[in-house]
Amino acid sequence: MQTTTVESLIEASAYPFIGTKADYNLLLKLVGNARLVLLGEATHGTHEFYRARAEITKRLITEKGFSAVAVEADWPDAYRINRYVRADNDDVEAIDALGDFKRFPAWMWRNADVLDFLGWLRGYNDGLGSDAAKIGFYGLDLYSLHSSIDAVLNYLDKVDQEAAKRARYRYSCFEHFGEDPQSYGYAASFGLTESCENDVVNQLVELQLSAADFVRRDGRETMDSFFFAEQNARLVKNAEQYYRLMFHGRVSSWNLRDRHMAETLDAIMAHLNIQQREAKIVVWEHNSHLGDARATEMGKQGEWNVGQLVREKYGAEAVLVGFSTHSGTVTAASDWGGIAERKQVRPALAGSYEALFHKLQPKSFLLNLRDGGKAAASLRPPRLQRAIGVIYRPETERISHYFQANLSAQFDAIIHFDHTRAVEPLERTSLWERGELPETFPTGI
After folding, report:
1. pLDDT tens digits for 45-65?
2. In angstroms, rounded to a whole number, what is the distance separating the alpha carbons of residues 166 and 172?
3. Are strands 68-74 and 281-284 parallel, antiparallel or unpaired?
4. Domain boundary pick from 279, 297, 328
5. How high is the pLDDT of residue 221?
6. Nearest-CA neighbor of 200 among 211, 212, 186, 184?
C-alpha cells in the first residue's frame, strides 16, 4: 500500500510558479472580496519577493479595486512617494520620490524593483479620470521621530502660527539629544532626564481638537494635509514611548511598534473610506510582522504583531500571504547601520519548512493554507522557519534567524521560491558588486 507523506500531500496541492500572469490566479481567487491583503517576505533583500508583491499588487489594483499600498517604511518618507504617484508634488521621476529614504537600511526601498513598481503606479494613476481617486502609497513604521516633528511644524506654520509656536516649545524637549532618539530614550528611561511624554501627548490632543478648524477649507487636499500632519503627531507620541521602552525588553517595544503599525493601517482605512465607498489596502511587510504571531514561538513569549491584530479586527476580510526561500543570495548588512552586502543565503536547516519545500516539485509554488485541506493539515505541526531581516549573520544562523512556527495557522497562503537572488540597491557599492564568496571557494591559496 502506498504511504502518504507530507511531501506528496503538498505536491498534490501546490500550484506552480513559472513566471506567468496565470501564476497568481489561484491567489486572486483566494482573496475574493477581502479588504486587506498582507504580503510578507522572508528577507528584507530578495528580488523575487519584491517582484511577486508588485505583480500581485498590480492585479489587486486593476482587478479587485484596491486603493492603497501600505508598507514597512517611515510615514513621512513614504508620503512623499504618495504625493508623487498621485502627481501632487514636484518630483519628476520615481527615483526623485525616493529621495527621503536616507537612513539605514536604504536598500529596502531604494532598489530597482521598488523603482519599477512606483513607475507603474504613477502611470496607472495618470491614466485615471480627473475625478477618480488615485491609488495611494503610505508608510506604517515609527522610526521617523525628528522628520515627523518637522512635518507637524511645517503644517502648523501654514495654518496657525500661534499653534506652531506652542508645538515648537513642546517638541524642544528633544533638542538636547540632537538627531539621535535612542540617546533620548536611554536618558528618559533611566531617569537621567525628564520624559517628553506629556509634551507629545498634549501636542497630539491639541492638533486633534483643532481638526474641524483646520479642515473647514474645501477640497480633498486640505483633508489630506491634515491627515498627514495628524499621523505625524501620533507617530511622535508613539515613537517617544518606543525609544523609552527599547531599554526595558524586546517584547514591550516590539508590541508597541506593531500596535502603532496596525493603528496606522486602521487610520488609513478610515481616511480613504471618507473619500471612496470602500477602501481596500495591500500591505508589504516582513513575514515576522504579517504572519499571525499566535502561531509562532514569539507569540507564546507575549509578542503580538500586525497580522494577529488585523485578523482579530477584520477576520476573513484579511488574507495573509507568507514567502519563503531555500537558498541563493540576499542584500543585507552584517551589523546595524552597516554597508549593504550581497550575501549567500545558506541552504535551509534540516527540520525547517524551507528544507521541506526544497524537496518538492515544482521548486517554486503557491500553496493555499486556508482551505483546510490535507496539505494544510500536514503543515500544522511546528517546524523551524527562517527570518532574515536587514542583518544576516549565517555564523549564528540557528539562533539569529530561526524560530518555531505553525505555518498553516500563521498564513492563509505561502509562496515559495526555492532559489532566489539579492535585490539590487540603487546605490551599489563595490562590496555589494563583489558579493560574498560561496563557502566552497578554495582556501589556503
Report:
1. 999 999 999 999 999 999 999
2. 10
3. parallel
4. 279
5. 60
6. 184
**Structural domain of residue 380, as residue ranges?**
1-66+282-445
- This prediction's pTM: 0.95
The sign of the CA dihedral 112, 115, 117, 119 is negative
Cell output for 15: 500550484
CB 31 within 8 A of CB 59: no
User: Are 265 and 286 members of one domain?
Assistant: no
d(CA 47, CA 71): 16
Terminal-to-terminal C-alpha distance of the chain = 54
Give the three cell numbers for residue 128: 485615471
pLDDT per residue over 170-186, tens digit each? 999 998 888 888 898 88
- Looking at residue 243, its amino acid is Y
Q: Is the dihedral of CA 184, 190, 195, 200 positive or negative?
A: positive
Cell of 442: 578554495
Distance CA 32, CA 115 (A): 28
CA distance 38 to 102: 26
Distance of CA 236 to the CA centre of its chain: 19
Are 248 and 167 contacting, i.e. CB atoms less than 8 angstroms apart?
no
Taking the C-alpha atoms of residue 245 and residue 251, their distance in angstroms, rounded to an integer, is 9
Question: What's the mean pLDDT in 130-155?
Answer: 94
Check whether the bond before 362 is cis (ω within 30° of 0): yes
Judge whether residue 215 has pLDDT over 80.
no
Q: What letter would DSSP give residue 55? A: H
**183 and 224 housed in the same domain:** yes
Q: How far apart are alpha carbons 222 and 159 in whole angstroms?
A: 10
Q: What is the pLDDT of residues 218-252, one digit of tens each?
A: 455 688 899 999 999 999 999 999 999 887 766 88
The CA-CA-CA angle for residues 308, 309, 314, to 5°, reads: 100
Tell whether the model's pLDDT for residue 442 goes beyond 50.
no
Q: Domain end: 279, 304, 336, which one?
A: 279
